[in-house]
Amino acid sequence: MVGDKARVEMNAFQRNESKETLFTLFSAGDDPPKGDFPLQKKSPKLCGSNYPLSIAFIVVNEFCERFSYYGMRAVLTLYFLSFFHWDENLSTAVYHAFSALCYFTPVIGAIMADSWLGKYKTIIYLSIVYVVGHLIKSVGAIPSLGNQAVHVVLSMVGLFLIALGTGGIKPCVSAFGGDQFEEEHTSERSKFFSIFYLSINAGSLISTFVTPVLRGDVKCFGEDCYALAFGVPAALMVLALVVFIAGSGLYRKTPPQGNVLLEVCKCIGFAIKNRLKNRSREIPKRDHWLDWASEKYSKQLIGEVKMVTRVLFLFIPLPMFWALFDQQGSRWTLQATKMNADFGIYVLQPDQMQFLNPLLILVFIPIFDLGLYPLINMCKLNFTPIRKMATGMILAGLAFGLAAVIEVKINETDMPRLVPKESLIRVLNLAKNPVQVTIQDKDLFQQPVESFQNPAEYSKLILNGEQQSLHFTLQHQGLTLAFNYTAKEKSVYSLIVFEAEGSLSSRLITDLEAKPENGLAAVRFINGLSQDVNLTINSRRFIAVQKNYSASEYSLLERDTYNNGKCITETGEFPLELGLLDFGASYTVVITNISGGAVGTWKSEDIKANNVHMAWQLPQYLLISAGEVMFSITGLAFSYSQSPASMKSVLQAGWLLTVAVGNTFVLIVAEAAPMAQWAEFVLFTVLLFAVCIIFSIMGYFYVSVDPEDLEETEEKRETSSRGNTIGLVTQKTKL
After folding, report:
1. Subcellular location, in the record's words (predicted)?
2. 664: which strand partners?
């Protein structure tokens, strides 16, 4: 929610500024609009107060839009993973590419609003683009519509339009809300931004909890209902647009004022260009590189740009914090899919854990402002803004350190990673007596395997090539039988030993090579009966298994207790009880007999269930949310206090761009340097700690300034310079 905080958190520090500077993130500054414009009408008030009625439409619009954005983004990573069947690295990279784009596009929206259309029309037009993107995204999630290429194209087009829409209106909505207040109602304006911020958090909190439920608990087209999970946010965005248009007649609409961000960029560009043109040693040096813009731009503007560049220089290390922070929706969500989500009274979806961040932010802000910071001040500790931000970085780094520890514990239940010429094998003895299994030239299975013995862990099988023919010998009740099977590298096998028609036999079947994804359970059946069976696990899953120890394919099921199944044979229909199929586990269920009107089964756990509870993610969410409060709010307030009134919007642009750069860094790491997940968490931890040290050193040498004092100094210099210039001109005239 950092982009939203960038719009509203600084208002406590803005009460003494001019309205246009306060509430236009990328405003032009002090120049009045050119041309004749009609006087702004006064909006009707809410219940006799000084609050314009128009702000009700703006607040509702913001709630619906934030519900739309965060609800869609909450399920995005799992959508890539499950619907497109992309791997985790590609899913993470595309997720962060989308997030980065959402923080690059505010610059476009600001230029449109301040230089061309004005805020109102910009919000309308880009909201329409936003709605179209949502609709395309929702249609692209319908499984029956075309092949995967069609789904990918529709989804990418939809995401691009959503990024353009949400980023484009980001700098406009809160500023437009501030425009509704008259100059004398500064107190009401400040309270409005508190309500506005509450609507942002409410939309984020509710959507990140509800949308994963629509995805996981509702089934459509026989699988997770991503079409509904994207469709509901699309409907909320349509509602946001309708509500905003409904208040059109009540709004105070200010005309475009011009864009100071463009002026700053032009000034910097001209200074660099002019300096490169005048590299001769005969040309006198200037005190500051920006002074090379003095031939074209005023000294006041150059002085203000100098102040801004000092703060922007401090922004250089900040993207690393956002690189870690925004992985809550990607890497941390993927980590949650490999954990136990059963909280007793409720089973949490892995992407629902993201709701903890907005919830904790709402809790931490008053705790920090009213409790922690006053306590630190009472202890006479100089907890400067730079130190607060550095502490926020440390907390985020510690959060990723905890994530790395949890990832290591999760990996303990994973299947081993196989290298070339390696396979895994185990024995399932379904015969009535112990069996001794040997493989020629392999030192495996030293002890006899008991009848229906729970299998030990898989044994590593070393091959002499990509595949190898193996000679198996079975010793059973004094008899020795031999079988030949071909094993391939990087594969997992179970050797089934059974009795058929009075003699011992065997079959080599292929097992799963990795845990089921997204916390699903996998189950397959071996039919030990002498007749074919048809199995019904639930109302949507039907499996046919042939007789004489044939094995079915694996079926992926939601974690649940399945005791209402049916087994249909030639002789009748019988109840089938499977018990609990747990998160991330793989099972083999052997149908052994039918007696007493019931089916006899034996269940083996092939891959262990997820045994690390999702609640262990809570400490890392606590740390990173506390770090966000100390880093984001403090950083915005500090940078705002260090810039002149006309340049505060430029720093807002710089702040949003640090988020975009941080997300870009994550996608580069995910695609260019894939590694074990715990190692990647450690890498980000180390990088953030290193950046924190650099930032602390930069902050140590940074000298805080009062922009008003510097502005007065620049004015005096400019006045003095003008006096000297007049004198020179007069002297030349006399000559």
Report:
1. Apical cell membrane; Cytoplasmic vesicle, Phagosome membrane; Membrane
2. none
